[in-house]
Amino acid sequence: MLSHHPRLAWSSEFEYVVDKITDNGDFPDLNQYYEWLETLLIFQDVSFLTIDPELDYIQLVNSFLWQWKNHYRKELVGATVHRHFDRLLKIWPDANFIYLIRDARDVARSCIGMGWSGNVWKGLDRWLEAEYLWDQLKSQLSTDRYIEITYENLITDPVTTLTKICHFLTLEYDQNMLNYAGDTTYSKPDPKLIKQWRHKLSDYEIRLVESRASALLKDRGYELSGLPPLDVTPFMEKQINLQDWWFRIQFRINRYGLSLVLADYVARKLNIKPWQKQTQKQLIDIQMQYLK
Known about the structure:
One of its GO terms (biological process) is N-acetylglucosamine metabolic process. InterPro entries: Gal/GlcNAc/GalNAc_ST (IPR051135), P-loop_NTPase (IPR027417). GO terms for molecular function: N-acetylglucosamine 6-O-sulfotransferase activity. This is Sulfotransferase. It is a single chain. By secondary structure, the protein is mainly alpha-helical. It contains 13 helices and four strands. It has a two-stranded parallel sheet. The chain is globular, with a radius of gyration of 21 Å. The mean pLDDT is about 95.
């Protein structure tokens, strides 16, 4: 939606600028960073991005944004970062933030479909991490530097929600923002996409999520299901973690094949760089088939 504004370029997956920054704020060794980017699908998939070895780390990642902006010939540029977004201030101390909130029960369910987790208990990890991190980051920002919107409002009333975002960015809403379905694989906003947890999660799964996130759900404005609370014992949690581990292994084998999964594991374990690059290239080719 944002990238279809005539004045705004947008990188939809920009985690590679923060993933290698340490919690202490140290930037990565540049040569190691270059090697890592060579094996990173989301970076390699963007044909126009180039690496200038004359730049330091801050200059380099800033150049990536400028390349997005110049490639699409837009006046402004932004990016989506799902994790470690607090580290952005190490690079852009004056950055502004648009924070998208979604119902934890739908997020947890979605993580299973992506193969990131094997159950809603573990799928909730990403949501909790992001929410806690946002609370910390928000406390460092003045109110004019961020806007919070909900996924549910974006889907049910996209024009109003996008107008708010545009005004935050000192832009006017443009109807082209909703024309993305014509040249992407994403569908137009569909209200059926919200509250899917009500009919796609079992009562047990709903109770699992709410046993960990009930307070935050209410704080974010979401109603609880009304189901009785669930007390997750240490033994239950061990079973949940084991099931999650096994599911993710099976998902990976089903998608990539056992031989490639084993080759990738051994190549990384033995740190054989040429072999790693070879297996990563094969993994990327398969991943490309599932990208939207």
